[in-house]
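Fig. S4 source data, part A: sequence.
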Amino acid sequence: MVLRFGLLGPVLLHDGARAAGVSSPKGRVLLAALLLQANRPVALEHLRNALWGEHPPAGAQAALPNHVTRLRRLLAAADGGASRLRAVPPGYLLEVHDGELDLDVFEERRTQARRAHTDADWTAVARTTDAALDLWRGNPLADLPDFAEAPARLPVIRRLVEARLELLEWRFDAALGRDSHHEVLAELASAADEHPLREVFHRQLMLVLHRTDRQAEALEVFQRLRLTLADELGVAPGPAVQEAYQEILTRPPGRPPSDRAQAAGPAPSAPEDAPPPPGAQAAAPARVTPIGPVQEQPAFNSQLPMDVRHFVGRQAELESLVTLLTPAPTSGAPVATAPVVVTGMGGIGKTALAVHAAHRLRHLFPDGILYADLRGFGAGEARGAGDLLARFLSDLGAVHGPLPEETDDRAATFRAALADRRVLLVLDNARDARQVAPLLPGNGASAAIVTSRQTLAPLPGADLLPLKPLGPAEQRDLLAELCDVARLRHEPAAAADILAACGGLPLALRIAGARLAARPSWPLTALAERLKGPSGRLRALSVGGAAVRSTLGMSYVALRDSELPTERAAARAFRLLGLWPCHVLSLEGAAALLGLAVDDAEDAVEALVDAHLLESPQPGRYTFHDLLGEYAQECVEAEESPLDRHDARSRLLVWYAAAAAESCRTVSFTSQAPPPLDDPAGAPMPVFADAESALHWCVQELPAITEAIGLAGELRRPDIAWRLAVEMFGYAETYWWTGEWDALLDEALAIALREDDTFGQAWLHRRIGVAHGMAYRNEAALESLLEALALYEAMDDVGAEASITGNIFMCYMQMNRPQEALRYARRSQELFGLAGNKVSALIALTRTTDALVLGGELEEAERQFRKLVALLESEHRHPTQVATALTNFGRTLVALNRREEALETLYKALAIRRRLDDQGGTVDCLEAVAEAYFAFGDWQQARVHWEQSLLISRTLGLAHGIEQARRGLAMLAEHA
């Protein structure tokens, strides 16, 4: 069967008779990503990035196979059951036949059109361009959802849009070459209006109008284009437009050039006495020339520093800045009635952006540009507003006698001097709002750009323009501009390391680029290794008088040496946060680390955010830019005593241990908890509304907890290390399949053994046995659990013995050894009774239901399951335990041949697992659903669910899931 796939508009799948809609938003993104590389393997990483961006969620790796399965099913239904989508290393391949994809047909017809255009075969050009353009159904990939990359940023879309515009140009050229001017006039006028900066359309429109006896309108098109280019880009029309202008001036209307093959090309030179077009150059160079104002400029206009070479990126910020400062046509006043404040950390490119924008705006401020470095951060004293006002007034020629002594009076005189002028002020490197306020123009046609490392929030009505680190593409483009793109292409891995080390900071990139440019024979790996070296990036990122360390340090030193106690407190916070530089820290965690009340800690860290020494990605959470984090580490090592550093780290570790315990209590009500630490937590605990919020906290804080265990070992605090690992049990009940809990437990056990902490070893063996059991590593689980049981028997801890014997029961259940399982189940229930544990009844009920199923007593098991599920849902509301109970209950209902209720119960469990992004639990549920369909004779649905289980298990490396799915598919093959 011949399918039709479409990308030149909404994503299309057509089976030859009707469109087979791809209703799922992610399904459309997935199909588009595969079609863009049709008949080629598309890597899993590329598909994940297409679906979730550069930072996919934790469950993306396992969710991808589900989307692939649904798409494969849709394709098979449209193609009569044929399989077009198959797994091939390193991902998936979609088979597309010749002529099925509109993009391929479009490229083929475009190639034919280009060949005809080169040959000036205008009839063929008209035919082939029409054929190619007929394939367009709207904007390419028009129905991609919001979570996909925005179409404007997709290179393939930009390329396709440009290809369509090029085809339109060729089509209009064909009309000019065939004298078919009236046929394209309306469409060409619309294209020129839609693309006001595209000179080709305007040149063609000028010629069509001229050749249809509308010379005045043709000249209007030229004048409009000239003004637009001057206003928007500061350039004049290019040589081709100038030549069309000459044709309009020197040939009678309606008379095209004699050589039809060159009808759309250059026109002959004008006679010597022909008037030159506005903005035309004597000998037109290959590059366009900026247009400047024609009136005389004041002498101080040269105050603006030289424009930045290799200015790359920041297009959105640049356009915002230009728009805010462009005078309105009616009033002549800028759009922004207050200053535009460009803020950001040191080295982020504030001055470069401000100066570059000011150069672009220069012709719009005919009375000049005043520039001053206010020296708010750096060596020496900040410049006083009074002295700067005296200089500005002198530059304006407004000093006609002694100046007032008071700064406020000078500011009033300055505003009066600007009242009837159009002046742009660039006030660079401001310390605070008090320094800036007197220097601002009043209401009028003047405008101001202010740059500062502070947000300058007190400035009334200021438009804030915060700068973030450059994006990946901008970083690479800037480094390529500085040191030759060929070197980056030759050593992509080393280039990636250099870019990562620079952290998107333009200053760091310029220093790295300068070092490479000065050493053309160096391989990129040489600099990459220096940036990874023991001396750190900050030492390597310096060249000449520029150094990242000193640039970052200006902000910190200004706080540290301030006369204000609040700023000195912020500097201390900056140093101590350098003890934990690589992780996002909550406000409560920061308070623990700093040894402050929460309100005082908030004041300190928010002051650092205002100074761009700290970032706040979410309310109440804080993190460093990685270069600032490295600098903070240097500061705390140099300026805080070893004892103060030790105490701060210990406070944070104790808080994390207490918070992890709170999360475990919220998530896992059946889990016995170790006794708390003697150390007070020092700050409030996170507030968890329910088990899901506690699980979210665990996922979010897992990298920090991993590092905290290692740090606890360095501080010789095994009691903290093993508690952190053990209290992640609540997380592990849902996310055991990641393998991360195993790593935490192993590291903590090594610390406990090294420090001879027997009590910690007992807890860790206990949890390691559970971790092995969750992953069906039953022999290893029994070994660890028996080791733990021996340690607890020596300590005479009956409650712990009860819990461990229950876990041993589960191991034997999984090994299908019913006699040993029942023996340990009874022993566990007996020990729970002796211990008087409050949750023993529920635990015993869970064990009983499992034992009843194993013994074949299904009716009684059904009654006990209903009781268990009701208790879990109504009293405890712990989703992981609910899902486990529902899965086992569903299997029991299958055995009782209760099809509808069994499937409803199993799908309810599956929905919980997917909502939690619990991929290991999802595999178990899919296996149970597949077994149910198989038992009820629905082979197709059984296959679908076993295939889903197999894909997820392969992706995650779950040996047990792979084995189960393969066994199920093999059973299906036998029944085929």
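Fig. S4 source data, part B ends here. DSSP finds 42 helices and 15 strands in the chain.
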